[in-house]
Amino acid sequence: MRVAKRSDLGRKKTLGGHAGSLYVSVGVQPKASSNHEWGNQGAKQGNVELAGIERKLLAEPKGKASGRTGARRSASAGARTKTGAKTGEGRGIVGTRVKSGERAGVSRGRKGARAKTGKRAVAGRRHAAPRGGRAAGARGKQRTAAQRAPGPAPPQATHRHGGVAPVGRESAAAHAGSARALAPAQPAAAPECGYAEGFRDGVFAGGEALVAQHIPPDHILPDVAAADLIEAGFRQYAPTLTRLASPHEMAGHIQGALDAQRPLSVVRLGDGELLTLAADTVLPGEQVQELAPFLPYAGVPRSTPDIRAELAEAIRGADWIGVPISRAPTFQGLLFPVLRYFGIDWSRLNLTSSTINYSLHHSGLLLPVVQGRRVLLIGSRAAELGGLLIGRGVHVTGIIGTVEGVADIPRVMQQTAEHSFDIALVAAGIPAVILCSRIAGELGRVAIDFGHLADKLVTGELHL
């Protein structure tokens, strides 16, 4: 066994072991390739056969501690490391443990070189023994290079309920060139669940697969993800963004109408109203029944042409229309097709958010709007809500209980006309849109579609 120091390797030093005709070079760093892997397998430099390093994912600067190992190369013959540290060189010699100034030899018939009595260096294994410091490129849970994305790992995706979307192995989206469209890889030990597979397939079908439809045959679009195309396209359409009235602006409009004693209606369109309008118009009625089994509870046992016409007319006559911010299929996905079908030009409407009722409350504007006014409450929670408002000094002049669906609107309107009030808060499901529009148009009062905010205040989920 002898150690040779070769000057023709530039400023890099080698530690060689000679056993017969076998030469082993440890620690030589050829130039890194573009994908951060060492490519010196079978290469020669200065007539010296390079071996022992097939891949290395992290470049190791000369004279500095190697990544996460604490190992330090020296100009002297012999690999110098901190006591007890492991040196990891991928698939070649991994986990060799040496002390300062000792030689690493190669013995035949053994898996590793003994550098210290009782401590065996394991060669040919993918991971280093789990003792001492962590070895670069030899972590117990390290993924292979084929599993790694070419760039930094993307953040975990979240699904619509706010949790972290389960993630799994690499999907077809990666082969389409989209690292961003792919959920992060799941640890190999964790079983893949059905949600993860469906999530990846959905992301691919809604992104890269749509892009692929526009790419001509025998062509690719290199290194451009669907997210990049969306970003570029959004810049083109940004001038068409439409601003919705904010809670403070809406509070100002309501108070201005109350002060001037002029009518004002604020209605809101959610999935219930939109699915009611979409039935047998932009969607088959059977599909609407599957998507919205809650419609009877919301006041529409079955969407009929008369109900749809009355609801569309209420939207046309309302002063302010709350529209969904969500772009989900049953929200904005239906909003514009439905308005188009009924001939309603959305650009001529005064728009705010469909959750303006909650926004007024969360902004602390609800009580200032109704305090000092005569308030009429309509809906199944009217009596309980009235008790809460009275406790906060609000002047409640009337209560109309449960509204039995759209068919009950004539009775409710008759009772409403019998009350003296300045503003009506209506929590009656889909009929609230029609009621608010008619209260303003026929009775000349202010009417607000109060919605499920009444339920949340009564149950204590929200507080005045």
Q: Quick recap of the structure?
A:
The protein has 464 residues and is an alpha/beta fold.
Radius of gyration: 36 Å
Structure classification: alpha/beta
Distance between the termini: 86 Å
Unreliable stretches covering 5 or more consecutive residues: 1-190
The helicity comes to 25-40%
Largest sheet: 7 strands, parallel
- If helices are DSSP runs of H or I spanning 4 or more residues, what is the number of helices? 15
Shape: elongated
Please trace the helix and strand order, writing H or E for each element: EEEEEEEEHHHHHEHHHEHEHHEHEHEHEH
Number of strands: 15
Strand order in space, largest sheet: 11-10-9-15-14-12-13
| β-sheet strand percentage | 5-15%
Descriptive account of the structure:
This protein has helices at 172-175, 194-205, 208-212, 226-237, 247-260, 271-278, 285-291, 305-317, 332-341, 356-362, 366-370, 382-391, 409-417, 431-443, 453-459; strands at residues 15-19, 22-26, 44-45, 48-49, 87-88, 94-96, 114-116, 119-120, 264-268, 320-323, 351-353, 374-379, 395-400, 423-427, 446-449. A hairpin with a 5-residue loop joins strand 5 (87-88) and strand 6. Residues 1-190 have low confidence and may be disordered. The strands form 5 sheets. The protein has a 7-stranded parallel sheet with strand order 11-10-9-15-14-12-13, sandwiched between helices. The protein contains 15 helices and 15 strands. Helix 6 (271-278) packs across helix 9 (332-341) and helix 13 packs parallel to helix 14. The protein is elongated. By secondary structure, the chain is an alpha/beta fold.
